[in-house]
Amino acid sequence: xxxxxxxxxxxxxxxxWQCLERYPAASKGVKFVDIDYKDLMLKKRAVVRxxxxxxxxxxxxxxxxxxxxxxxxxxxxxxxxxxxxxxxNRVLEDVVDVKKSKLKAKSLHK
Length: 110
Known about the structure:
It contains five helices and six strands. It is an alpha/beta fold. The chain has one domain. The chain is globular.
């Protein structure tokens, strides 16, 4: 993960798709990490998997039923109880080396 930039998003954020489409050079080496409650992320995963315009931008896709629900070179979906900071930290550490990564967080929840 060294050299990879991570951008954290929550909710139904189109930012990863906009950046991958509009700014491919700037998005190179960026991994978008989407975090929300598991039931919501399962719905988002179904959408991403069913829409060719979204999933065709992604490489090396892996799907799981726990924690990291969807993983690709460009985009990751994490499903967990956001009130459980310990669980959130564990699942996040599975995909991001927090100490070596430059994290930028964006939330639509204000």
